[in-house]
C-alpha cells in the first residue's frame, strides 16, 4: 500500500488553504507542510496497525499484520491451514477470543533457551507471524483449551486409574 497518495492529498489540501492567505502565511504553511509529512505518515501507519489489530480479533485464528517494506506498509494475512476431511484426528480448534481486549497492552520479559527461541521463531515464520504474535496466540489457545477441558480426577493410591490405555509393549 502506498501512503504517498494519501500524504499528497493532505499536502494538496493544505496548499489550497495556504493560497487563500497573504505571502507570509503561505511561506509559513509551506514550511509547516514539509514538517507535517512525517507526522502524517506515522498517523496513517498507526491507523493501519489499529485496523489490522481489529480485523485480527474477528479473523481468529487467522491474523492480519502491517509490515513495513522499503518504507511502505504491506498487509500480511495469515489463515490457518485447511486440512483434508478425515486427515486429522483432532477436532477443529475453537476460535481464540481474547476476553480482555479493552485493557492496555503490557510488556512481559521471558527467558528462553536459545533452541526453544529458534523453534518458536521457525513456527511463527511458518504461520507468517512475528514471534511475539505467535507467543500471544499460543498462550491464548492454551488458556482457552484449559478452560474447556473437564477437570481431571486422580485415582486413590493403589486403586488404579480411570483412564484406559491401549498399545503394544515389548
Automatic annotation (TrEMBL):
InterPro entries in the cross-refs: Arc_rbn_hlx_hlx, Ribbon_hlx_hlx
Region (Disordered): 76-102, 143-170
Composition skew (Basic residues), residue ranges: 160-170
Gene Ontology BP terms: regulation of DNA-templated transcription
Protein name, per record: Toxin-antitoxin system HicB family antitoxin
Organism annotation: Actinocatenispora thailandica
Amino acid at each position: 500500500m502506498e501512503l504517498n497518495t494519501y500524504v499528497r492529498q493532505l499536502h494538496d489540501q493544505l496548499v489550497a488553504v495556504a493560497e487563500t492567505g497573504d505571502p507570509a502565511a503561505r511561506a509559513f504553511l509551506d514550511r509547516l507542510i514539509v514538517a507535517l509529512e512525517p507526522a502524517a505518515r506515522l498517523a496513517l501507519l498507526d491507523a493501519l496497525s489499529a485496523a489490522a489489530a481489529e480485523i485480527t480479533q474477528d479473523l481468529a485464528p487467522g491474523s492480519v499484520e502491517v509490515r513495513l517494506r522499503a518504507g511502505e506498509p504491506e498487509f500480511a494475512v495469515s489463515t490457518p491451514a485447511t486440512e483434508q476431511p478425515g486427515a486429522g484426528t483432532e477436532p477443529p480448534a475453537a476460535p481464540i477470543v481474547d476476553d480482555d481486549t479493552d485493557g492496555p497492552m503490557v510488556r512481559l520479559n521471558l527467558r528462553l533457551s536459545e533452541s526453544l527461541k529458534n523453534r518458536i521463531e521457525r513456527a511463527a515464520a511458518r504461520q507468517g507471524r512475528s514471534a511475539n504474535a505467535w507467543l500471544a496466540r499460543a498462550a491464548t489457545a492454551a488458556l482457552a483449551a484449559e478452560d474447556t477441558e473437564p477437570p481431571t480426577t486422580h485415582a486413590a493410591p493403589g486403586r488404579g486409574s480411570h483412564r484406559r490405555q491401549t498399545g503394544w509393549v515389548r
